[in-house]
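Journal club side-thread
Mid-discussion, someone asked how the predicted structure for our own chain would compare to the paper's figures. Pasting it here so we can look after the session.
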Amino acid sequence: MHIEKNVFDNILNTVIDIKEKTKDNLNAWKGLKIICNRAKLEVDERRPNVMPKAVYTQTKEQKRRICEWTSHLKFPDGYVSNLAYCLNMKELRMHGMKRHDCHVFMQKLILIAFCEMLSKSMWSALTKASLLFQILCLMTLDVNKVKNKAHVEASIVEAYLVEEIGLFTSHYFEPHILCKRNRPRRNDNLCMNDPRIQWSIFNYPGRASGASKKRWLRGLEAQSVT
């Protein structure tokens, strides 16, 4: 997964044009003249130290839209960390993403994020890179299940049999016994309706997330409640 993170970081930093991390530098443009016969992509000899803007590099407004879109993403509990914490809205960049965050973004989000920002040819290349890692992940084995290195196949089969047997037998447990199948999620508190709250619109099970804040009801809102 660390290889996937490195590829994702290189793609993201290049497209968003992070100066100190992008792979789209002046040396790369000068190398195009040697390995690629495309005159329009070559550096102007009259201005050898000026690098032209790449067609896949995002503008400031496009980068702002991508960051705002990412900040409003919502995921199931435990699926991925809060990506809003990895955004720097002042510099319009992402930082501090863990390997699993990059894994989810590379395979599930990057195609949606840049769908309207890149040309068809650029987006097609990005699609192939994303699908590549999806296929590789389907072929990846959990090394933690391999206990006997001399008999890898048998170790994997035995580990999965134990896992399936444990899941199957859990269906015969008493309802009050918590197991992998019926264990509540981290943010579930299984609370009943609070009898102290008289208005049903404020009486929903669960608990709020994030910082609390006050908001007064407007005239029409207060009338509809009362």
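Post-session note: The chain is about 40% helix and 0% strand.
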